[in-house]
Amino acid sequence: MSSKNEGRINKFKNTQRNETQKNKRRDDIVQLRKEKRNDQLQKRRNITSSTDDAPLSPLQENNSLNRSYSNMQDVVDGLHADLDPVLQFESTKETRKMLSTERNPPIQFFIENGAIPKLVQFLASDNQELVFQAAWALTNIASGSSEETKAVVEASAINPLIDLLTSSNFNIAEQAMWALGNIAGDSPNLRDFVLEQGILKNLAILAEMILATPKYEITEGCGGDPKIIKKTSHFGHGRYIDGGHSYYTADIPPHLKITLIQNLAWTLSNLCRNRCPPTKIEHIMLMLPMLKHMLYLEDIKTVTDALWAFSYVTDGPAPRIQAILNDDVHTRMVEIIGTVNESTVIIPAIRALGNIITGTDDQTQVVLEAGLLPAILNWTNHKDARNLQKELAWVLSNIMAGTSYQIQAVIDAQLLPWVTDLCLYADFKTRKEAAWAITNLSSSGTEDQRAVLIEHGGVEALCSMLDVPDNKIIEICLSALLNLAGDERQQDTVTLNIERCGGLDKVEELQNHVQETIYKYAFSIIDTYFGEPNDENVVSSTTGTFEFEEVEPGTGGFRF
User: Fold this and answer.
1) Contact, 560 vs 538, CB < 8 A?
2) What is the pTM of this model?
3) What is the CA radius of gyration of the chain?
4) Cβ neighbours of residue 493 under 8 Å, at least 6 residues apart?
5) How far apart are CA 25 and CA 354, in angstroms?
6) Sign of CA dihedral 392, 395, 400, 406
7) Rounded to an integer, what distance in angstroms lies between the CA atom of residue 38 and that of residue 275?
């Protein structure tokens, strides 16, 4: 790490490089996904929504004997009836139906009674309806606990499911992909195991059949002008909106195509999920073309899952971030933020771009040059802005820990008043991110930029955070006040504002704080700017940092 970047971290850049902050960030992601993205989970079951068993996939369920079962043991016995293929099919279908109930599916019963090996065996059957029912049942078993998912893996289901990804029956391919997505979403170990078994090769083949990425071979025409001589497709056919071209694969019904693409996006996101350890970069590179293409599709659910995948990929070191920048994915993300009105789509886009901004200054600059700040400004007045405030403040806090040029870009975009308002009036988590942003400007900005912060209520915003139940936030806000007061031109204005907004009483109280750094910062503010002049007290005029000298007993106070 360069000394420059180390300096930025020491200036409180909220980069998540600190492991404690990284853990907290991952906790926030989990909570956010639980609260706002219930339709996109690590594991999903294919559930029948009514007792009449309306299928969720278009495969027709013919030749049903409507056999009634007295208990689940009859169903398990039917699975093992090798001499009666009709009974085996009906039992497999009934197993699937029992596992598709919304509440308390009997997963453990079927595991304990040996159903999984038979279901895996059926994946190789010539009867496509039997294969489909078996894959569906395994999907729902794999949606259970980690132990239940592990039981599917231990029954050697992975490779047969991967083989089915290239089935000519797209219902079967979709169900196999769904099962593999559940397995990959269980843990980093199972994710890596699925990847090592070669899932990406067959997913790419499936993508060729359901996606469309028009590609053009270009040669020089008359006068050296480029001329299109042949149009090809990287992924086959499908709805593609870039350039106004539309293509469809004739043998895939449109409604099935949509669910196939949605499941592909969700499965890829699970293959990128988790960072302890993260997905290997060589696997990420194989997924990038599919994920990038999905950002240009019209289906919101597909775009959202692809963006979550990119948010996982960018939550890592600079080389992983650079791979995304090299593929120009960030440009499309910024475009989405500026044009899409769905906050559920914007959240993962902001998360991915925010992760990129935690990289190097050069990587931050690339995102800014793509137009991120005007796109953010559009959302500050959006009706759903409240759902994004914390994420947007987090992004701005990292930008304002960058170069003075990058800080000026935030100021020029008229975003600074919005940040100070967040610090004063938003919910507590958002206020904390806004406090980081203000603190970062106070330490990384120029004297003129700090003056603009003061003009837009920066002092009042910082003082509003001095009595919050978070010692780290109190500490950085005190540090920021020292930074602002350290500018001689602004010293009188800063001290007057501290008094007017009631901040002085809070600072005086913090001199009694149990945390050493906090009471030293508070003492320094009072002693330097509100007490009797003392030439021995020296406070940095730009960084708010101190050097503590030993003081003889009885003399009182600290020397900084």
Assistant:
1) yes
2) 0.79
3) 29
4) 454
5) 12
6) negative
7) 21
